[in-house]
UniProtKB/TrEMBL annotation:
<feature type="domain" description="Intradiol ring-cleavage dioxygenases">
    <location>
        <begin position="102"/>
        <end position="178"/>
    </location>
</feature>
<feature type="compositionally biased region" description="Low complexity">
    <location>
        <begin position="51"/>
        <end position="62"/>
    </location>
</feature>
<feature type="region of interest" description="Disordered">
    <location>
        <begin position="51"/>
        <end position="81"/>
    </location>
</feature>
<protein>
    <submittedName>
        <fullName>Intradiol ring-cleavage dioxygenase</fullName>
    </submittedName>
</protein>
<feature type="compositionally biased region" description="Pro residues">
    <location>
        <begin position="284"/>
        <end position="293"/>
    </location>
</feature>
<keyword id="KW-0560">Oxidoreductase</keyword>
<keyword id="KW-0223">Dioxygenase</keyword>
<dbReference type="InterPro" id="IPR006311">
    <property type="entry name" value="TAT_signal"/>
</dbReference>
<dbReference type="InterPro" id="IPR000627">
    <property type="entry name" value="Intradiol_dOase_C"/>
</dbReference>
<dbReference type="Pfam" id="PF00775">
    <property type="entry name" value="Dioxygenase_C"/>
</dbReference>
<dbReference type="GO" id="GO:0051213">
    <property type="term" value="F:dioxygenase activity"/>
</dbReference>
<feature type="region of interest" description="Disordered">
    <location>
        <begin position="271"/>
        <end position="293"/>
    </location>
</feature>
<dbReference type="InterPro" id="IPR015889">
    <property type="entry name" value="Intradiol_dOase_core"/>
</dbReference>
Length: 293
């Protein structure tokens, strides 16, 4: 898959690619390769210290699997780019921002992700920007689904603290036909990188445990999710099915009355290039959902 999703005009149209100049060359490289070439930043230092020869297309042992961003990422790779909007860096993603005023109803969920870099011995990836998004209680995605195309809720970015941790306040997403209940995530090396989906260094998904989903889907508003969950398993799901979501299955505490805390370690390796992401892919879109035009 080509991870450079945006075609750029050549600064010297009549010259060969190798003669376009340093600025063009650096813009063509992904962020990790730029750091490696220039020897800049903590990531590059960590990589150099490890002396890795890991091929760029592999996934390291222990690294969270690369998955499709699906048809509704809202990162500019297909349709709108919510990542360029003021206000996207926020912890409570239940409301829309920047004009729309919609609020996503549902059982409260706090999502805690802890990002670590295997290239630096699994140390916390402080400063990484994590973008998460998921469907609402009805199985619709903001920006795309017809009923909520004008909303942008259940999308947000947090910057990892010194422990590599990000925390989002949200609601438990629905289960819809063909997919196990999940949350999407993209990891970027820093906050300025989020404006371009091509800068993502990891794209994956969080799987929710069945017992939690059963409890939630017995609540008013989630009726269709209970039916959909009966028709899918972690091993039949077209994203988690290859290993049953072994490293993507979150741990959960809490209950329906007080809300749930959903936690997952997100281990990435900055020596490897992402093998997924991008628009489309077998995400199992909810029936009848089409991108906004």
């Amino acid at each position: 898959m080509d991870h450079h999703r945006h075609q750029r005009p050549l600064p010297r149209p009549d010259a060969d690619l190798e003669d376009q100049g340093l600025a063009f060359d650096l813009g063509t490289l992904d962020r990790r390769r730029v750091l490696r070439v220039l020897g800049l930043g903590a990531v590059a230092v960590g990589v150099a210290a490890c002396g890795s020869t890991t091929p760029a297309s592999t996934t390291s042992p222990g690294e969270i699997p690369d998955e499709t961003a699906g048809p509704f990422p809202g990162d500019g790779s297909t349709g709108a780019n919510v990542l360029t909007r003021s206000g996207i860096v926020r912890s409570d993603i239940r409301t829309s921002f920047g004009g729309p005023t919609g609020v996503a109803e549902g059982v409260p969920m706090v999502l805690e992700l802890t990002v670590a870099d295997l290239a630096r011995g699994g140390s916390p990836f402080a400063g990484a920007a994590v973008y998460v998004w998921h469907c609402n209680r009805e199985g619709d995605y903001s920006l795309y689904s017809e009923r909520i195309a004008g909303e942008n809720y259940l999308r947000g970015v947090q910057i990892a603290d010194a422990a590599g941790r990000v925390r989002f306040t949200s609601i438990v997403p629905a289960c819809y036909e063909g997919r196990w209940p999940h949350v999407h995530l993209e990891v970027y090396p820093d906050a300025p990188s989020i404006v371009d989906a091509g800068n993502a260094i990891a794209t994956s998904q969080v799987a929710l445990p069945e017992d939690t989903c059963r409890q939630v889907y017995a609540q008013p508003g989630y009726e269709q999710s209970a039916t959909a969950l009966d028709d899918v398993t972690l091993t039949s799901d077209n994203v988690f099915g290859d290993d049953g979501g072994a490293s993507q299955l979150a741990t959960v505490t809490g209950d329906v009355a007080t809300g749930y805390t959903v936690a997952l370690p997100v281990r990435i390796d900055t020596r490897t290039a992402p093998a997924a992401g991008g628009p489309g892919g077998p995400d199992g879109a909810p029936p009848g959902v089409r991108p906004s035009r």
